[in-house]
Amino acid sequence: xxxxxxxxxxxxxxxxxxxxxxxxxxxxxxxxxxxxxxxxxxxxxxxxxxxxxxxxxxxxxxxxxxxxxxxxxxxxxxxxxxxxxxxxxxxxxxxxxxxxxxxxxxxxxxxxxxxxxxxxxxxxxxxxxxxxxxxxxxxxxxxxxxxxxxxxxxxxxxxxxxxxxxxxxxxxxxxxxxxxxxxxxxxxxxxxxxxxxxxxxxxxxxxxxxxxxxxxxxxxxxxxxxxxxxxxxxxxxxxxxxxxxxxxxxxxxxxxxxxxxxxxxxxxxxxxxxxxxxxxxxxxxxxxxxxxxxxxxxxxxxxxxxxxxxxxxxxxxxxxxxxxxxxxxxxxxxxxxxxxxxxxxxxxxxxxxxxxxxxxxxxxxxxxxxxxxxxxxxxxxxxxxxxxxxxxxxxxxxxxxxxxxxxxxxxxxxxxxxxxxxxxxxxxxxxxxxxxx
Length: 437
Known about the structure:
By secondary structure, the protein is mostly helical. The protein has three domains: 6-84, Arc Repressor Mutant, subunit A (Orthogonal Bundle); 86-236 and 311-434, no CATH class; 239-306, Homeodomain-like (Arc Repressor Mutant, subunit A, Orthogonal Bundle). Helix content is 69%, strand content 1%. The protein contains 20 helices and two strands. It has helices at 30-50, 57-64, 68-74, 78-98, 107-126, 128-136, 138-158, 169-193, 200-216, 239-245, 249-257, 260-276, 283-290, 294-300, 304-323, 334-354, 356-368, 370-391, 399-413, 420-434, and strands at residues 6-8, 14-16. Strand 1 (6-8) and strand 2 form a beta hairpin. Residues 1-5 and 8-13 have low confidence and may be disordered.
């Protein structure tokens, strides 16, 4: 096996060395470091353009303006490049967490949290393709687990005078960290459709307020900030998506499903997309799994994007109808209200978790396809507008931007089936972080 192209330094950073057998002297100077950095930066652009799985060494080398031979002097494979980038993320996230000052209920504690959110946002912005890959791939998600555990431990060590139940510290902090990452992803999709509608300062302040209230309760003048700008504009659905989500869509789909070929394609495509991923799925795979001809496939769908859109709208209808059942704010008071919220969270989790894999297929496709990415913004904006109206009766905070955080919370909450302590954690974030109770 070839030697690794890195050496660990005392401060945890990675020194640049050439991989054997490309040089008898593996140590490189400034020029070699610049070459490796250029390859890493090119890989970030390539992963952002086509996604981690669809990316190739040739694409990375071309963007880096180097030969394949030069690439292999520093990296063994595309996976090796990703490990380097993931390592950079890990080190930067760790350094950011270690720089976190004491988290306290007062303004100083809020400011410490606000500074951490700003640093994390900068890391996310630079390494967004790495975060996307970690979110949408089970194997790669394991890479993030260690960093998350370290961050939770660090936040624990900085937490002072919290009013949160001690038994809930770990699950709540873990959920808040996932929600922070996902909020930045949701904002990225919304900005693609409305570039100037989501200023960074307002997003980061909304995240900070929700997290601080969750940990310390509602504190006027500390973790309550009103909107300082207009509401984002509503985003209309594209005609194809609007038709699939329209009032008579389910009736039309039921009638079409009576056709054996159409029903077979829909029934099998779900599993094919999940098994192979959107970009690795071919029309040949879909027709083979359904047992139909190419002609039959194209009689109903113009391509795999349209088929994926139909499957995704089924999920959106199911999750959207459950979201509309969220208990009204006045009914959440007292023991009965607390129980009602937890029952609803279990229903929402069941509806989302059942189709979480298909949602991830769509997210992965949208991250790599500008057209599909644009289609993903209106459903998120629909959720934002619905939850903004939901939050208005509480009478404090930035409803429009905290609603974005709430959309992200429900997104990560439904990414897998949740146990009782995690249901309780989500309820705590809603009750304390959003409702200030």
